Amino acid sequence: MGNLSFDIAHLFAGGLVLVSFMLLYQDRMSGLINIFTLHAVVLSLSVGWQAYTQRAWHLFVTAAIALIFKALIIPLSLRRIMVRLRIHRTVEIIGGVGVTMLVGIGLVALSMVVMLRATAAADPLAREDLAFALSVVLLGLLMMVTRRNAVSQVIGFMSLENGLILAAAGAKGMPLVVEISVAFSVLIAFIVIGVFLFRIRERFDTVDVHQLDQFRGEYR
Amino acid sequence: MALIVDLAAQGAQMIVVLALAPLLLGFTRSVKARLLRRRGPSILQPYRDLLRLLRKEVVLADNASWLFRTAPYAIFAATWVAAALVPTFATGLMFSWSADLIAITALLGSARFFLALAGMDVGTSFGGIGSSREAMFASLAEPAMIMIVFIVSLIAGSTQLSVVAAHMLSHLELRVSIGLALIGLVIVAIAENGRIPVDNPATHLELTMVHEAMVLEYSGRHLAVIELAAALKLLMYLSLIACIFFPWGLAPYGAGPRDMAFGAVAYAIKLAVGGFFLALFETSTAKMRVFRVPEFLGAALMLGLLGTLLLFVSRSL
Amino acid sequence: MSIMVVLWSVGALLATSVLAVAMTGRIAASRIVYALCCGVCLLLLGAGVTHLGAVAETAALPLGLPWVGAHFRLDALSAFFLTVINLTGAAASFYAIGYGAHEQHPSRVLPFFPAFLAGMNLVIVADDAFSFLVAWEFMSLSSWALVLAHHHVAENRRAGFVYLTMASFGTLALLMAFGLIAAPSGYAFAAIRAATHSPWKPGLVLALTLLGAGSKAGLVPLHIWLPLAHPAAPSHVSALMSGVMTKVAVYGFVRIVFDLLGPPAWWWSLVVLSLGGVTAVMGVLYALMQHDLKRLLAYHSVENIGIIFIGLGLALAFEAYAMPSAAALSLTAGLLHVFNHSVFKSLLFFGAGAVLTSTGERDMEHLGGLIHRMPQTAFAFLVGCIAISALPPFNGFVSEWLTFQAILLSPQLSSWGLKFLVPAVGGLLALSAALAAACFVKAFGVTFLGRPRSEAAERGRETDRFSLAAMFVFAALCLVAGIAPGLFIDALAPVVKSLVGDRMPAQLGIEWLSIVPIAESRSSYNGLLVFVFIVFSALVAAQIIHRFGSHALRRGPAWDCGYPDPSPATQYTASSFAQPIRRILGGVAFGARERVDMPAPGDARAARLDITIRDRAWDVLYTPIARGVEFGADQLNQLHFLTIRGYLSLVFVALVGLLFVVAAWP
Question: What is the pTM of this model?
Fold first, then answer.
């Protein structure tokens, strides 16, 4: 049984990394939001399984928060934003999918080397979770760096935050308060960014951040 | 005596794969037709096509060389040997020790090498386009395949298919890497067999065709042999997927006739399920542009790499 | 005394060189010289093969530095490389008996060819740093003279210059490496082996050896001279340079790193493996972009050197973590690839030479359809293509398969960096193998298949008997080494055992000539059965079809979807074949750019497609260095225009500075 529970935890955490890669690969706005929903679902499954194996019932709350906010509310409202901004069919140009993916794989390898070395004394499940969590965080950052569209940057940011929650769930004893605060801070960040998106859109008629740079006088 | 039994089992496997390959093709086509609300030809149609082609005379282009005439047999032989080495209804057959998964992949590479050369022999533009695109697909599909081999061999500690199947049966594990390897192998199989969305086996006269462009100049018995080889390749990939990921029912080495019969039934069911899913997938998706294919195959390569990485992690805890 | 045989043979080669000078202008000179070379090489080959498992022999000659003398030694490693060199040497000489007749200026080739062979053999048997370096430089210079054989072509002169620069640089690096590891008691290898080194030294020596031997072998980014120089020489010399001289460089690396330097540190393998992986992929990508047949082959040597270094790097990794049997497997894989590559690369260069003499063309875009005019050459070349593409049942596959098996052992390594690097290198190896197949479909397809693209290709004739014989012997060897690899693996066992302290399990006792690197339940491969199986099924299929189906055959015009175009220009060319791969990988690998100049409708101008491909090594590494050197030279140039007082003060300052250094030296 112990082996099976480890296997399932491994499956969910590894699945989260995989979904992060799908986020990195996807170039269509609606597809991006769908995959982000999947990301949140996998996260809540993973956290839920952690709650079950660690007998830590407060983690179920975290899982529920992830499911409700990230898999329902945020995707739905993002979809609304997308429709109102009329960018739902946008295909984003990402500079070289292949290179980005290779860099992503390199980041996963890096985070594994770092984490597994640093946590030699911890128990296997926590070590693995931490390694995967760091990969998800780095992949989220990579996504924010490589995307130009503000909406996909927001999604990148939130996938990064999912990685943080995974780490918090893996490290036993992280109090619920921290998690709730993290979740709410992200929600607030999301609202703020949403508002800003509209402001940007009103002013510049685009959400391509490249144009913002031009406006500020950078790049040419 | 044991030698004779072993030889008989191996010979039976060779004949089984050869006999079943057109049937699988016919089955897939008819399922596809049904899904499109057409009636479609009988599932025996591929046999009839092959027989008709065999009886026709060969029309050879004026400047075709000896390579063009011998290549079909080389392609067929390499594919047949590869298909015969993958366990279908029983493991541990006599010759299954003569080549492991890497060698089987390379054997298919040999077949492809000759096919691509044959496409260039007559010196037409269609043949060249097919060969060069096939070379591009292969140069991504092969590393993806090798990464999958890595995953499988890391899990089972062997690249020998019989051992892999036995290991998978005895150690049921839920691993992300296994899932990644399965997805990767399916992608590779679709690309290697020229199925939708990579290539459309039913079309001619389209600039996107790959396999059909290479064999454009072939006719008569040569074409029959090449078509049979293509059918064998499809069967081989399905057997491979079944053997690695769904090894249930495979008769172990030295099993009696009852186990063998059971294995054969299980194999038939697996093939039918595989063919059905192939048809379902093909009807639910559209062919992609040629230069989207590298991304598709690149995804398989990335999945393989990622799977290997994940496996390293979970192995070394 | 094998060592004496070797030394006398080297002497005989040098004498042949002198004879060649004496016979300048005689018609028969070329045949006599090459026949002599072939004979001596066969003698050396015999010495190498018989000595593979025997104990080491040494000899000292009163040459070289006074009171030191020149030391020579023939051990298992030397014997193996002696075999490789002289097998190809004999075949190349035999090939040249026919091929040499086409040479326009035989006096520019004949004296240097035996000298080149002698130089390579001397490197292999040298047993002290001094004679090693002298032999190394002798080999470099004689091959440089051969590269300049056709010096009236401007391109070849440039190749010669780049080659000379890189060769001098490589020798300098090796000189410094030997300077660092020299023992207090002298430069003899035995003394170096016995000495203990301070901890920082071996790493530095490894770096210098990688620079020195790597530049000769063609490791990326030190490969730039290779694709220029190898094709410039006459084809039998190209075969030697590509098939063998790169192997002498591998020998230098193995000798210094595995034999002289003592136990490896863990990070060495990281460096060697990454270099090997990058070299393998970049080499084959460059090769794929070429349309000059000989240059394609030369670039492809870079790939194979990468594969060999992957094997060596794995061996270093396993040795560092005290896994001798795995190290033995990796080293066997690398050394077997040394042998295999020398066989098929020489075969391919012989074929390219035959095409060159028969059509006068090296550019594939002007060839095509040669399979009809040169059927035997085409067959031998095809065998070489299959072997080099690592396809079963030929020999290239066996060594790559062994390398893969070694890679699959890597999870047992305990270093994290290696755990992640080795699978990635495995992916690179698989990528390079697949690209190699594409590359040789292109090489064979465009050169030999299709319709002739020029008049020269239409007029091609089959080459001479000697060349054909040499090619067929090597083609047969490709098959034999592919279906009975156990023979070669067992022959390598003493070599490997002397270097890493263990050997692969004996293969010859296994039933049906299978090879089993570790255990049968893990992996096994049987080239013989696969070969028999393929031939049997092909024959059965052909028999049955001809018996029961139709065997009627009619010739007609090509079908081509109903629109055949009579002009051969409509065929796929070498560059169009490579276009898909250039498009997906070229941008990253070498900044490939396509510029289409399409005239507006109504404009009668021809459309143009320009493709630029840059060797990034030039841009990133060599152009800045060249610029720096130029700048420095400009600055120093001012020294030419000083006054007398200026010169005197320069000398004075230099003298005082030197005295200060002497005074400050502890």
Answer: 0.91
Q: Would you list the domain boundaries of chain C? A: 1-260, 616-664
| pLDDT tops 70 at residue A91 | no
**Does the CA dihedral C656-C658-C663-C664 come out positive or negative?**
positive
d(CA B55, CA C549): 5
* Residue scoring higher pLDDT (A115 or C581): C581
Contact of C454 with C367, CB cutoff 8 Å:
yes
Q: What is the ipTM of this complex?
A: 0.95
Closest residue to B306, CB basis, from A97, A108, A131 = A108
Contact B312 C433 (CB under 8 A): no
Residues in chain B, overall count: 317
- Residue carrying the six token digits 């005239």: C599
Helix (H, G, I), strand (E, B) or coil at A96: coil
Nearest CA to C86 out of C447, C426, C346 is that of C346
| Cβ within 8 Å, pair C588-A112 | no
How many structural domains comprise chain B? 1
- Taking the C-alpha atoms of residue B236 and residue B248, their distance in angstroms, rounded to an integer, is 17
What does the DSSP assignment read for C555-570?
EE---GGG---S-GGG
Question: pLDDT digits over C284-312, tens only?
Answer: 999 999 999 999 999 999 999 999 999 99
Secondary structure element (H or E) that encloses residue C596, with its range: strand C593-597
Question: Three-state SS for C188?
Answer: strand
Residue type, B129: I
**Which of these, A132, A163, A153, A170, lies nearest to A50 by C-alpha position?**
A170
Number of residues in chain A:
220
CA distance B306 to chain A (A): 7
Q: Could you tell me which of B254, B228, B299 has the C-alpha nearest to residue C537? A: B228
As a whole number of angstroms, the distance between CA C382 and CA A87 comes to 55
pLDDT tens digits, C185-233: 778 888 888 887 788 888 999 999 999 999 999 998 899 999 899 999 9
Beta-ladder partners of A71:
none
Residue C453: DSSP 8-state: S
Any idea which residue has 């990939």 for tokens?
Answer: B237
In terms of CA atoms, which chain A residue is nearest residue B303? A18
Domain that holds residue B155: 2-315
CB atoms inside a 10 Å sphere around CB B285: 12
Cα separation of B93 and B85, whole Å?
8
Q: Which residues of chain C are within 8 Å of residue B80 when distances are taken between CB atoms? A: 537, 541
Domain locations in chain A as residue ranges:
2-215
- Contact: C420, A112; criterion CB under 8 Å: yes
Per-residue pLDDT, averaged over C58-73, amounts to 82
Q: Three-state secondary structure along C600-639?
A: CCCCCCCCEEEEECCCHHHHHHHHHHHHHHHHHHHHHHHH
Say if residues B209 and B55 touch (Cβ distance below 8 Å).
no
Distance linking the first and last C-alpha atoms of chain B = 48
